[in-house]
C-alpha cells in the first residue's frame, strides 16, 4: 500500500510524519505546479471549483510515481467538498486507473466505519499507537503553523533582506529530508528559536491585512499565487484566519466533544449570518468583523470561482465593510487567474489602505 | 383588511407552491405571487446581486423586487434541509441574508428556518413560527397546515400522472399527449419549470411530439432505489432526485434521450451533471446533452441544440439497423 494525499499548504509534512510514525509508505505528490493545474483542469468537470482541479492533478502526478491509495477527508455537505471523493472516483475510473480512495469521515454519524477506515490506512488496529502518532503529528502541524504565521508577520520588518525566506526554505528542506515526527519536531524547535531572533525594524510603517475566505485558497499558496509573500513585499503584515492545525483540532477534538473554539467567531458573525451554511462562510464573516475590531487596516477575501458558501458571504461584504469601517477586497481565483491583473489589484488595494491610514493620521494631528 | 403575503415565483416555488399558497390562504391571508419571469425581473435581479451568483438566485432577487411594494410580508424561508441527513444548496441557507443585504429596502421578510436535517420533530414548531405572522391561534395554524399538506400531496400525485407544474399552474388539466417517444429532462425544478429562463424548453420538446418526463413524474421509491446504488449518499435532496432519475432513465427502454438543463455556475450541477454524464457515456447508449443557461443565453443557440438532439433521436428510430456498408447510402433514392 502506497498512500498519497492532496496538497494543502505545507500539511504534507505533518501527514508524512504521521505515516512515517505508523510505518506506512507514502508518496508525497510533487509540489503544485502549472502542470498539476493543467492536468486537473483537463480531466475535471468544467465548472467544479478550483481545489478539486488541483487535487486531481496531485493524484495523477502521484499515481505516476506509484501511489495506489488516496486518502482524503470528507464531509456531508452542504458544500461540494463532501462529494469530491465521488467525482474523483468517477474521473479516475474513466481514466482507467485502479486506485483505492479512502475517505476519512463518519457517514451518517457512523463512528465504527470511521475507525475501520482509519485502521485500514494506518495498517494497524492498535488505537493507542494511532492516537500517539496522531498526537505527535499534530504537534508538528501546530509548530509548523506557528512558524508560517511568524513568517507572514515578521517578513515586512526584516532588516536583512530574504533572511526569513532563506530560513523558511531551509526548514522545509530539512523537514522534507527527515523521517518521523521526532526528527521534524527538533528541526521546527530550532527554526522557531532562530526566527524569534531575526533582527527587525519595528519603526517601519507597515499595514495589517487579514486573509479570510475559503479554506483551501487561503492556505494553499499555489492557488492564491502566494498572496502572503506578495503582500509582505509591499510592506504589509498578513494574518491568515484559517490554518490546517486549527481545522484539524476543531474537527477531531472540539466538535466531537460537542464544543467549539469558534463560538467567538460565530458570535461576531451573528448580526449578519446566524446559522452554518457550509464551507467557511460564517467564519469569513465573523473573522472580518473581528479583524476590524482588532484594528487591522483591511481584509482580503479569497475564494474559488463558483464557491457556493463564499458567494453568500461575498454578498454580505458591502454591508460589513460599511458598518465596521474596514475595506474589503474579494478575490476570485480559478485556473484562468493571471498574475499581472492579480498583482495590480493587490497594489491598488494596498495603496488605498495606505492613503486611508495617512488621512486618519493627519486628521488626528489637525484636531 | 387581510394581511398580504408575497411569494416569489422562483426557486422552490414550483416544488411547494400549493403547500405555501394554501397554507397562507387557509389562515386568511391574501397571497400575491410575483409575475412570471420576464426581462425586467431578470435585469433587476442581475443588477442587485453579486456577479458570481447563479442565474436562479439572480432571478429570485428580481421576483422579490417585483413583490416589494405590493405586500406586507415576503415569504423567503431559510431552506436548510427538508430530509434527514440531506441538504439543499448552501445558497438557499443564506438566501434571507443575501436578500436582506443586497436589497436594502426590502423589509418584513418571513425568514423562518426550515431545517429537518436531524429529524422532523421541529416540524410543528416551524409551522407555528411561520403561521404566527398571520394569526396567534395555534390550532388554526395546525389545521391550515394539515389542509395545505393535503393539497400539496394532491399536487404531487397529479405530477406522478405526467402533468408538469406548468400544466397545473395554467390549469391545463387535459391529458397531456402521451407520445411513445419519451425524453427525460433533468435539472433543478427552478431551471426546468421557469418557462422564461429555460426558454420554454418543455413546450419546445412537446412541439416535436416528444413526451417530457422530469424527476417529479417518477415514483419516490424508484428514485430512492436507484440513488441508493451510489457509493456515497448524495446529500443534496434535489441532487439525489436528479441522480436517481438519471440512473432510472439509463435503464428504462422507453426513454429515448436525456437532456440536462443546468445553469451556469451551479455548484450542485457541476458535480451531478458530471457524474450523470460519465455514467451515461460509460454504460448506456442513450443520447445525452447538457444545456447550460445563464442571463446571456441566446434562444437561437438553445433551439439549434434541441433540434439537433431531436434529429438524433428520430434518425435512430428510422435507421436503427441500417448501418451503412461501404459506399452505400443510408437513404436510397
TrEMBL record, chain A:
Coiled coil: none annotated. Keywords: Kinase, Transferase. It comes from the Bacteria. Residues 13-70 form the DUF2229 domain. GO terms for molecular function: kinase activity. Transmembrane segments: none annotated. Pfam families: DUF2229. InterPro entries: CoA_activase_DUF2229, Dehydratase_Activator_Redct. This is Predicted nucleotide-binding protein, sugar kinase/HSP70/actin superfamily. It comes from Paramaledivibacter caminithermalis (strain DSM 15212 / CIP 107654 / DViRD3) (Clostridium caminithermale). The lineage of its organism: Bacteria, Bacillati, Bacillota, Clostridia, Peptostreptococcales.
TrEMBL record, chain B:
Keywords: Kinase, Transferase. It comes from the Bacteria. Signal peptide: none annotated. Pfam families: DUF2229. One of its GO terms (molecular function) is kinase activity. Residues 4-218 form the DUF2229 domain. This is Predicted nucleotide-binding protein, sugar kinase/HSP70/actin superfamily. It comes from Paramaledivibacter caminithermalis (strain DSM 15212 / CIP 107654 / DViRD3) (Clostridium caminithermale).
Amino acid at each position: 500500500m502506497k498512500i498519497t494525499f492532496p496538497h494543502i499548504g505545507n500539511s504534507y509534512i505533518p501527514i508524512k510524519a504521521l505515516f512515517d510514525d505508523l510505518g506506512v509508505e507514502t508518496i508525497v505528490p510533487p509540489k503544485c505546479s502549472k502542470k498539476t493545474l493543467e492536468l486537473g483542469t483537463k480531466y475535471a468537470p468544467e465548472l467544479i471549483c478550483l481545489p478539486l482541479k488541483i487535487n486531481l492533478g496531485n493524484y495523477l502526478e502521484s499515481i505516476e510515481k506509484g501511489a495506489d491509495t488516496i486518502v482524503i477527508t470528507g464531509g456531508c455537505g452542504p458544500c461540494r467538498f463532501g462529494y469530491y471523493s465521488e467525482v474523483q472516483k468517477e474521473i479516475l475510473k474513466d481514466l482507467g486507473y485502479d486506485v483505492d480512495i479512502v475517505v476519512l469521515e463518519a457517514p451518517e454519524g457512523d463512528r465504527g466505519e470511521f475507525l475501520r477506515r482509519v485502521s485500514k490506512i494506518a495498517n494497524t488496529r492498535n488505537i493507542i499507537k494511532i492516537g500517539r502518532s496522531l498526537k505527535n503529528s499534530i504537534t508538528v502541524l501546530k509548530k509548523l503553523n506557528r512558524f508560517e504565521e511568524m513568517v507572514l508577520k515578521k517578513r515586512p520588518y526584516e532588516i536583512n533582506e530574504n533572511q526569513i525566506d532563506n530560513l523558511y526554505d531551509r526548514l522545509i528542506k530539512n523537514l522534507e529530508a527527515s523521517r518521523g515526527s521526532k526528527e521534524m519536531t527538533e528541526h521546527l524547535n530550532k527554526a522557531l528559536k532562530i526566527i524569534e531572533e531575526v533582527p527587525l525594524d519595528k519603526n517601519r510603517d507597515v499595514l495589517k491585512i487579514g486573509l479570510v475566505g475559503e479554506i483551501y485558497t487561503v492556505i494553499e499558496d499555489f492557488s492564491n499565487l502566494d498572496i502572503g509573500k506578495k503582500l509582505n513585499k509591499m510592506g504589509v503584515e498578513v494574518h491568515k484566519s484559517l490554518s490546517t492545525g486549527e481545522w484539524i483540532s476543531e474537527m477531531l477534538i472540539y466538535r466531537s466533544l460537542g464544543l467549539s473554539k469558534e463560538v467567538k467567531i460565530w458570535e461576531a458573525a451573528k448580526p449578519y449570518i446566524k446559522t452554518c451554511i457550509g464551507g467557511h462562510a460564517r467564519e469569513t464573516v465573523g473573522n472580518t468583523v473581528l479583524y476590524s475590531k482588532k484594528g487591522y487596516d483591511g481584509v482580503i477575501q479569497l475564494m474559488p470561482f463558483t464557491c457556493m458558501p463564499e458567494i453568500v458571504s461575498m454578498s454580505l461584504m458591502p454591508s460589513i465593510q460599511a458598518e465596521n469601517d474596514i475595506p474589503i477586497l474579494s478575490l476570485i481565483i480559478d485556473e484562468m487567474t493571471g498574475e499581472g491583473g492579480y498583482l495590480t489589484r493587490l497594489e491598488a488595494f494596498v495603496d488605498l489602505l495606505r492613503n486611508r491610514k495617512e488621512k486618519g493620521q493627519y486628521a488626528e494631528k489637525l484636531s | 383588511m387581510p394581511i398580504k403575503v408575497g411569494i416569489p415565483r422562483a426557486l422552490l416555488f414550483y416544488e411547494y407552491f400549493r403547500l405555501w399558497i394554501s397554507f397562507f390562504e387557509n389562515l386568511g391571508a391574501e397571497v400575491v405571487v410575483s409575475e412570471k419571469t420576464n426581462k425586467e425581473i431578470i435585469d433587476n435581479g442581475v443588477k442587485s446581486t453579486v456577479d458570481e451568483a447563479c442565474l436562479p438566485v439572480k432571478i429570485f432577487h428580481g421576483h422579490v423586487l417585483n413583490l416589494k411594494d405590493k405586500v406586507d410580508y415576503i415569504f423567503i424561508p431559510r431552506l436548510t434541509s427538508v430530509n434527514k441527513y440531506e441538504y439543499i444548496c448552501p445558497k438557499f441557507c443564506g438566501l434571507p441574508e443575501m436578500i436582506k443585504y443586497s436589497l436594502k429596502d426590502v423589509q418584513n421578510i418571513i425568514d423562518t428556518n426550515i431545517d429537518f436535517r436531524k429529524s422532523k420533530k421541529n416540524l410543528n414548531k416551524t409551522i407555528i413560527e411561520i403561521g404566527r405572522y398571520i394569526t396567534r391561534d395555534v390550532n388554526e395554524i395546525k389545521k391550515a397546515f394539515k389542509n395545505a399538506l393535503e393539497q400539496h400531496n394532491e399536487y404531487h400525485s397529479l405530477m406522478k400522472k405526467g402533468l408538469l407544474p406548468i400544466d397545473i399552474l395554467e390549469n391545463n388539466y387535459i391529458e397531456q399527449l402521451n407520445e411513445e417517444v419519451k425524453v427525460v429532462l433533468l435539472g433543478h425544478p427552478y431551471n426546468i419549470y421557469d418557462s422564461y429562463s429555460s426558454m420554454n424548453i418543455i413546450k419546445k420538446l412537446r412541439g416535436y411530439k416528444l413526451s417530457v418526463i422530469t424527476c417529479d413524474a417518477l415514483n419516490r421509491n424508484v428514485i430512492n432505489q436507484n440513488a441508493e446504488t451510489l457509493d456515497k449518499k448524495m446529500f443534496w435532496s434535489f441532487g439525489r432526485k436528479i441522480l436517481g432519475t438519471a440512473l432510472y432513465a439509463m435503464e428504462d427502454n422507453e426513454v429515448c434521450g436525456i437532456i440536462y438543463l443546468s445553469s451556469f455556475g451551479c455548484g450542485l450541477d457541476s458535480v451531478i451533471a458530471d457524474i450523470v454524464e460519465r455514467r451515461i457515456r460509460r454504460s448506456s447508449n442513450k443520447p445525452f446533452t447538457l444545456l447550460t443557461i445563464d442571463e446571456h443565453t441566446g434562444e437561437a443557440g438553445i433551439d439549434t441544440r434541441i433540434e439537433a438532439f431531436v434529429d438524433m433521436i428520430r434518425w435512430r428510430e428510422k435507421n436503427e439497423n441500417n448501418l451503412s456498408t461501404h459506399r452505400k447510402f443510408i437513404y436510397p433514392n
